[in-house]
């Protein structure tokens, strides 16, 4: 197969969510045409209720957690389960807001038209993806390493099946990995083919060699998946998915791999950053600009390239707190740093220098809560010293993070301090929830008001 440049497969989940929402709203317009309303409020309540109901139903049924577009029978089963919960919720909302039950004829039409429309919409989308794949349009490079075990054959069959899309499959079934030289050859092949997901389905060699490969994959941001046996792993925060009945172990659990969770987090980011930009930055930027004109020469903002999600470089915005200097991209701020101005010291201790990063959040290059982005020089240095350092780049960087509110804010002058920060960043990645983000924001505000020893 060709080794075309790949994209994240998230677009399939986004497309399915968009198709579903468009379909149920189209059916709602049809329903609206055949119904008499007492007032506009009732009409609006029905449309809002239908959308809220579908959003909640899809979330709790994990409707968009799938990694592929399923066969017709599975599509019908999935849509049936969604519609059952959706109809129950809509009926409750309608009766509560309007005070009367659906007319039976219209209600029956809504059920059948919605059900078959959703199935047909998904099936047409499946055909669209098949057509794109026939033209060689691939999205994600996948390698399966396996011998003659049945699990390897089933996994290869799964990725090769007509119901799986966006996968450029590479088989490595004739290589037995039992020596260090074999592992090194495999690493070169993974790098050359630009593999995104690596599946191990083979007898486990020396455990040290296995651990070396896992660590290497994570540092290269290649997601490692093991098709079991579990007994060879030290049990940790792992997760298991079923690919048509075949259990596949994901070495690292990532809640933000779920499409629905990313939607919730992005909505929170947009909402929170919009409030900050409108109600705080709108007056804070002019105020800091005026103060800066009287205290130090130079630009208002300090814009620096930092390491972002998937180690992609982005431009982070801060209020400038230092004199213009040549070491800003190489040297981290330290206590009593003579580069920091008097105004800059006030901004840094109160964390106000970080406020412009909400612009980054609104634009989507950062998130409110996540691992703090490091300078490019630090990423290069620490990725060579700390085995799991690059794992933190699997999610967007944040203005604040779990490490920052648990004692690891500020400088990381020693390797132990950076290792502690990385461990907490990875813990956050593996345990994310919207409530955890809210907790981190609360602790960040609380610490800023009380003052922090490491804020300098």
TrEMBL record:
<feature type="transmembrane region" description="Helical">
    <location>
        <begin position="37"/>
        <end position="59"/>
    </location>
</feature>
<keyword id="KW-0472">Membrane</keyword>
<comment type="similarity">
    <text>Belongs to the bacterial sugar transferase family.</text>
</comment>
<keyword id="KW-0808">Transferase</keyword>
<dbReference type="Pfam" id="PF02397">
    <property type="entry name" value="Bac_transf"/>
</dbReference>
<feature type="transmembrane region" description="Helical">
    <location>
        <begin position="268"/>
        <end position="292"/>
    </location>
</feature>
<dbReference type="GO" id="GO:0016020">
    <property type="term" value="C:membrane"/>
</dbReference>
<keyword id="KW-1133">Transmembrane helix</keyword>
<protein>
    <submittedName>
        <fullName>Glycosyltransferase</fullName>
    </submittedName>
</protein>
<feature type="transmembrane region" description="Helical">
    <location>
        <begin position="79"/>
        <end position="99"/>
    </location>
</feature>
<dbReference type="GO" id="GO:0016780">
    <property type="term" value="F:phosphotransferase activity, for other substituted phosphate groups"/>
</dbReference>
<feature type="transmembrane region" description="Helical">
    <location>
        <begin position="12"/>
        <end position="31"/>
    </location>
</feature>
<feature type="transmembrane region" description="Helical">
    <location>
        <begin position="105"/>
        <end position="125"/>
    </location>
</feature>
<dbReference type="InterPro" id="IPR017475">
    <property type="entry name" value="EPS_sugar_tfrase"/>
</dbReference>
<keyword id="KW-0812">Transmembrane</keyword>
<feature type="domain" description="Bacterial sugar transferase">
    <location>
        <begin position="265"/>
        <end position="449"/>
    </location>
</feature>
<dbReference type="InterPro" id="IPR003362">
    <property type="entry name" value="Bact_transf"/>
</dbReference>
């Amino acid at each position: 197969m060709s080794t075309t440049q790949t994209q994240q497969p998230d677009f399939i989940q986004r497309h399915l969510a968009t198709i579903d929402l468009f379909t149920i709203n189209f059916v709602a317009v049809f329903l609206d045409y055949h119904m008499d309303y007492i007032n506009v409020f009732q009409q609006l309540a029905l449309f809002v209720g239908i959308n809220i109901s579908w959003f909640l139903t899809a979330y709790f049924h994990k409707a968009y957690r799938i990694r592929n577009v399923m066969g017709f029978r599975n599509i019908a089963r999935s849509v049936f389960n969604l519609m059952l919960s959706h109809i129950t919720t809509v009926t409750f909302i309608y009766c509560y807001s309007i005070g009367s039950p659906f007319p039976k004829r219209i209600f029956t039409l809504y059920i059948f038209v919605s059900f078959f429309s959703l199935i047909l919409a998904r099936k047409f989308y499946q055909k669209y993806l098949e057509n794109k794949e026939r033209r060689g349009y691939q999205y994600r490079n996948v390698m399966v390493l396996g011998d003659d075990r049945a699990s390897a054959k089933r996994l290869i069959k799964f990725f090769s099946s007509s119901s799986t899309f966006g996968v450029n499959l590479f088989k490595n079934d004739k290589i037995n990995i039992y020596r260090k030289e074999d592992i090194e050859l495999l690493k070169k092949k993974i790098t050359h083919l630009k593999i995104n997901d690596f599946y191990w389905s083979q007898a486990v060699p020396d455990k040290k060699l296995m651990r070396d490969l896992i660590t290497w994959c994570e540092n290269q941001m290649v997601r490692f998946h093991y098709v079991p046996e579990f007994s060879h792993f030290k049990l940790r925060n792992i997760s298991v998915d079923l690919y048509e009945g075949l259990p596949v172990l994901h070495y690292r659990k990532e809640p933000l791999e779920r499409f629905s969770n990313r939607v919730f987090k992005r909505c929170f980011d947009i909402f929170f950053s919009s409030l900050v930009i409108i109600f705080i930055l709108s007056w804070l930027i002019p105020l800091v600009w005026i103060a800066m004109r009287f205290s130090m020469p130079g630009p208002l903002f300090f814009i620096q390239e930092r390491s972002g999600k998937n180690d992609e470089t982005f431009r982070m915005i801060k209020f400038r707190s230092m004199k213009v200097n040549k070491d800003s991209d190489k040297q981290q701020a330290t206590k009593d740093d003579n580069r920091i101005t008097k105004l800059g010291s006030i901004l840094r201790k109160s964390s106000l220098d970080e406020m412009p990063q909400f612009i980054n959040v609104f634009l989507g290059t950062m998130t409110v809560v996540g691992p703090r982005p490091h300078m490019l020089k630090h990423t290069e240095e620490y990725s060579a010293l700390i085995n799991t350092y690059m794992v933190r780049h699997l999610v967007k960087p944040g203005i604040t993070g779990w490490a920052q509110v648990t004692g690891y804010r500020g400088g990381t002058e020693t390797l132990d301090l950076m290792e502690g920060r990385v461990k907490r960043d990875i813990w956050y990645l593996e345990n994310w929830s919207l409530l955890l983000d809210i907790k981190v924001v609360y602790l960040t505000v609380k610490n800023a008001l009380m003052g922090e020893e490491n804020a300098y």
